[in-house]
């Protein structure tokens, strides 16, 4: 039994709580609590913090998490440079293989790593690729460097969007698009357009988001992931525009494409479409459209994500979807919507570019006249991340 598991069991027994009772006091399911105590599930910081609050443990569970050793970025580059010097040419296939792996690893880290923490690592690798592009390469090696640089530039732009550093994001999106053009890589080019569509969607440019999403679909390879993501983005934009027919058409196309795609080896990879995401996209789209089915779908998505327990950022977004569905549903339950918003805010997993959704939900609770509104508004203001460009 791990130190965390032992402390969790001791605290729960000390307070005389069953798994079900502790689950009711926290955001963690009873099955997850059981697995955590048996050492069969690795606790995240968010889960530990939620259980600390429920057990009034004053951070004792968080302090018992095993903190992984930070990536030794300099050591990684020392290894790459040594392999490069050992090669007969300026760039070896070994280095290119490693860079491909690094680009994938960064994209997989996106789902769980705060943008400000991931950004320096992406920046460092892009500088290294820039150095290699200045050296002697074959045409094939040059293209592989362009592709790796394209993916990392795209990810860097996405991180800057998340941090609401939009001028910097636009510059790196242009770089990613230019590298995609030089490498003749339509998948990266389509993702650049999809990323722009998302940025416009978060800023209220819904018509422009539709245009960019459709452009992305037009150039994206049919077998790739960008075409599915861009179609989902189109559906979200139509939901914001209030066009139910166009929204449902887009959701139908996403569903048809998703049902024929296998689950990727790494579903957390930001640029590899996971069919499981379709449910989450549907929940968001329906909640934005005020559809009566939104609450049911949002609850299903939240239950799925909590059972998985590995994607805290998506869990926070799912809570915002559920809150909006509760607020706009036929019964109008602002108290429950406020509770979901509060839990999402306290998770600390809402990136700055997604904060407009918090504002929308908090504003709806305030407009309803619910007594929770003022406290929720104050809590949101206190937690609001700073913005810099």
Automatic annotation (TrEMBL):
<protein>
    <submittedName>
        <fullName>Helix-turn-helix domain-containing protein</fullName>
    </submittedName>
</protein>
<feature type="compositionally biased region" description="Basic and acidic residues">
    <location>
        <begin position="372"/>
        <end position="382"/>
    </location>
</feature>
<dbReference type="InterPro" id="IPR010982">
    <property type="entry name" value="Lambda_DNA-bd_dom_sf"/>
</dbReference>
<feature type="region of interest" description="Disordered">
    <location>
        <begin position="367"/>
        <end position="389"/>
    </location>
</feature>
<dbReference type="InterPro" id="IPR001387">
    <property type="entry name" value="Cro/C1-type_HTH"/>
</dbReference>
<dbReference type="Pfam" id="PF13560">
    <property type="entry name" value="HTH_31"/>
</dbReference>
<feature type="domain" description="HTH cro/C1-type">
    <location>
        <begin position="8"/>
        <end position="62"/>
    </location>
</feature>
